[in-house]
Amino acid sequence: MLSGHGIVNVNDKATVRSVVGNDTINSDYRHSQGSSSRNQYDWDSDDDLEVFGMPQESNVHSVEESGSTCSSAKNSKLIHHFLGMGFSVEEVIKAIEEDGEDNEENILETLLTLAATIDDPMREAFREPCDFAKKSVTTIDISDDNDDYDISDSEIEEDAFTSEKDETLSILVNMGYPFKEALIAIDKCGPGADLSDLADFICAAQLEKEIESHLQDRPNRIHDTSLHVHKRALPTTRKWWPKWDRRTQLNCLLTSIGAATVTEKIRRDLEECGAETPPPNVQDTVLKLCKKWNLVWVGKNKVATLEPDEYEMLLGFPKDHTRGGGISRTDRYKALGNAFQVDTVAYHLSVLKDQYPNGVNVLSLFSGIGGAEVALHRLGIKLKNVVSAEISEVNRNILRCWWEQTEQRGNLFEVEDVQRVTSEHISHWINRFGGFDLVIGGSPCNNLSGSNRVSRDGLDGEHSSLFYEYYRIVNEVMQAQR
DNA sequence: GACACTCGGATAGAGGCG
DNA sequence: CGCCTCTATCCGAGTGTC
Measuring CA to CA, how many Å separate A424 from each of A54, A186, A417, A441? Predict the structure, then answer.
């Protein structure tokens, strides 16, 4: 789901990283540097709305917190802040009671400790043993009818920090995952499992749990533990999934979806067969279309395209992230089809959590709907200043809405076009913020995509040539911060 | 060599507006 | 009624894998 995206930690040349597909070049995420001196940031500064005196001032906007000092409002914001990181209301309230409202770091530590000590219903999500190490993010079964995997708190405590698990466990916790979920993931995937698989395991279990919670009141729940990947991520499809459709994963989520005529053709073909198991030639035809368009089963002989909400879930974005605000379904598909997979980006950026305990200044190029920002937030990394360059007004609106909804305390500055980001702008920002800690972005790949029959012109194509702008800006930032 | 997959683009048609 | 915008639908060749 990622391709051609770059992530550069500009203060640590040794950990400059590039992401292509799901592979990581130089992925020594354990490597950790000391904190930067520029982390001394004045959170109470009141001069954040200044517009930098850029040549195109109207293209730069700033969004910041109102700065309310009302205790209850602050408390509410704190709760929302930590809820957004995946903790429960009870945990957050308890942590705030223990640490007070003024020290978020202590609250976060308490929350992580709580997650490691209280009884956690997440274990329910991990009962069916299977090999997750080679599967994707949507591979968790959460069936309730298999009790062969269960561990007690005492077992967890005894088993917690032993040799090989220790380091992996601490890394996962530092990435923002609850202790117990991390421990269960290690137990299920094996001590030698790759961290990305462990992260996938935890995220998928959280996703499943959320979906299941919405379905609890429904009658006739289906508990088929034999079903596979996407049927687990999309449990409402379980009931209708035919045995002869043995797909275990979905294809890349693209910017367009299958037409209604495709699903109608499938329904008609299957109904004409009449049999429970259609003849092989019909199966082949149907499966090809299902694979091509990521169709899932939603009724007898009835397939459907994924909804934008399901795109959001699978990509790790908050529910309704791209919904509303005058945004059409088509635009949602387009925006989501081009977006980062948040869990994957969070995995790659997790190394920054220790390096920048006071938060980061980010230059986000081709921001899209803010996958990088969401990932950093999810990791609990404060966003001090984010300069976001995004050509699409729809996408800028989505990111700005998310910024306000999650009550970010830092500053968001918007730029329309990366081509208009000059070295003067970069110098101004660096002087202003004390430097960027992270440059991240995914330049357009329209002209690189195999799906493009019309203008696959490579890196010299109209859109994909913006890669060179990314390269230029990264170089200018690194040179300016030498 | 057969097969599967692809961060897409062009366009007809619906709908809004004056 | 004409123009414009927006949306949904249809369109396949290049490339990698087995």
Answer: 8, 48, 15, 20
Which of A4-13, A159-168, A246-255, A440-449 is predicted least confidently? A4-13
- Ramachandran quadrant class, A292 (left: phi over 0; alpha: psi -120 to 50; beta: rest): alpha
Which residue, among A243, A244, A303, has the nearest Cα to A269 in the 3D structure?
A: A303
The arithmetic mean of pLDDT across residues A109-118, rounded, is 58
Alpha carbons A125 and A65: distance in angstroms, whole number:
37
Nucleotide nearest to A447 (CA to C1'): B8
- Integer distance in angstroms from the first to the last C-alpha of chain A? 34
Instruction: Give strand C nucleotides closer than 7 A to any protein Cβ.
Output: 6-15
- Of residues A36 and A378, more confidence is placed in A378
Q: Which amino acid is at A87?
A: F
- Looking at chain A, how many residues does it have? 482
> Annotated catalytic, A130?
no
pLDDT computed for residue A41 by the predictor: 29
pLDDT digits (tens, 9 = 90+) for A409-467: 999 999 989 999 999 999 999 999 999 999 999 899 888 888 888 888 888 888 888 99
SS3 A452: coil
CA A203 – CA A180 distance, rounded (Å): 13
**Which domains occur in chain A, in start order?**
5-63+345-480 (3.40.50), 121-215 (no CATH), 229-250+258-305 (no CATH)
Residues near chain B strand, CB within 7 A: A 1-5, 251-252, 254-256, 288, 291-292, 337-338, 442-455, 463
